Fold this protein.
Amino acid sequence: MASESRIGSDGLFNTAEVTTSGRPVLRRNEVECFLLSSVDLDSEDDPPRFTPLRSGNLILTTHRLIWIPSSQSNANTSSLPSSLPLSSITHIFSHKKSIKSMFHSPRIRFQVDSLVVVTVVFRGKGDFDGFLTKLWECWRGRAWEEDEKSESEASSGSGAGTVAQGLYGNDGTVRMVGLAGILRKEQEQWESTDKSLQDAFQDLNALMSKAKEMVSLAEKMRQKLLSAPSSQNGGGDDEEMGSKEEMQQWMLSVGIISPVTKESAGALYHQELSRQLADFVRIPLEQAGGMISLTDMYYHFNRARGTELISPDDLWQACNLWEKFDVPVMLRKFDSGVKVIQNKSHSDEEVMSRIRTLVTKTETLRTGVTASDAALTLKIAPAMAKEHLLSAETKGLLCRDMSPDGLRFYFNLFPEIDPTDLHLVKDIGTYGEWVKATSLLSV
Amino acid sequence: MSLIGKSVPFTSVSDQALRHRFSICCSWIESDRICEGQRMQKLGDFKLPQFFNYPPYFTLQPVRDTREKQIQLWKELILDFCKSQKVFLIGVEEDFPLFSNSAIDRTLSHEARETFLSAFVGEGRAEWLDKGHRKCLILWHRIQDWADIILKFVRENGLEDSVMTVEEIRSGTESLGTELEGIDRTILMRALKLLENKGKLALFKGTSADDEGVKFSV
């Protein structure tokens, strides 16, 4: 990841890669650190050195600053997702707190390539100070240099002729080799885990003592939010709405979902989770044949996450938000109550036609299909197959047969039978084929 | 079973249906496997339709449109059968032959039986005889139709001013071979009462219970 000079006629920023759901594509070893919404990036110089980016989400990672336009901003060509490598920042100006700055939206200024000064204006509500701290940390951390070093090491290391022998490697560190190596590795892991646990418990002890106070405080806040009238008219109430939003954000960070947030577009956390989920869902969906139950997705997603698991409620909220974004997946609820995630392109018509082909075969005309037969033939999960068969029944394509060994479905012949002439079997139609199929049974 | 040279048995069906059935019989002869009447089952001398072997026919369908069609088919079948076999009464829990098909190992559930019979009652082709819906009177002729049949019978036999017992109407020599032969007594009484209200006859009791009598004044 070499740093290049970016000041050209096309502007200061690189175009950032974004997934179909609007999440940034992160490089190897790049970790997301912070996210703020309603951020502008302005040029301080006059005439401006680059086109200002207005009203987007700013994501700080260990390697870059990524700006993604939010859906509300107008889609003109200059508002593409953009990124700026942290390596190109040469100076971050200290944030002077003056009387003037108290009236403005908070802003940060930093210098890129010793030339251009960029002003970041935070128009939204967010932990601005936390962001600034993190920015300093990431900038000072210089994670990109380690990447370069390991890359160059890897390229040079493969060419090295000598292979390390014995317990000590070429660079003097202890090699993880053999049974001793495995044991030592485990030992080191235990030690580091132990240490981090100890640190955590220090904080935890402190937290536990405050826990009761926190819970009661949070409850009070919640009551206050609930009791306050939700709809107000008049401009003078903007401030109150603003502080309410702040409270919601804060409460969400503590882990309490306010019922008020359900009506709004959802807190930022759920939005980002929703986008991330939409990206992740793609592969398991393909493997499952276009449709996957919500419980299966919960399992897949949390397994992939490892830590920071999401609750079933979070998953449910995130899926519900999909209808507000333009993502290629949707949540669907069947009459029986089963909830599934399916591709928008996955059509019911296609499955219906496959079912129809299956039940009009001579063999299945005679014997009908069970849910497991259909699952095998259509290559989908049995629970999904049952849902499809049930919806085919509702559409009138199939009818059911309660046999001694379970529920079976047959092609629906009832419409083809004439009630005024019970013995009539027309030449055309599936009824005649069924008669033929059953007559092939041995005597 | 060779059908060559034998006349194809039929109940009262249309010409077209007859031709169609005949063509099916011919195709039997042509095919190598000759089914021993497998496809066209019989109950007594009543020929069952093909769909009687269709398993879903014996499961009460949940989907509304399908169920309506199913009810219709059951109604026609039951009426046809009862008319041809002179069945007037169906016990819901009894072994009414149409309610099960051993060839495909299916039986109508109690719920299904009640649903289908209740559909009849709704259309005036049947009546429940008890509140518990255990016995159902089948009116493959409506009471009004039976009344007309009685009137016709009276006229054809020149009984306009005569007296008969109710039992004679059911089993007398004049009734032999007519539709009135073996008619269910309850139905007969209903029809007679209907005619009485119209002034076509008068009912009176005889010396014993069997001797309920009718004086026609058609």
In short: Residues 106 and 321 of chain A are 30 Å apart (CA to CA). The mean pLDDT of chain A is 75.
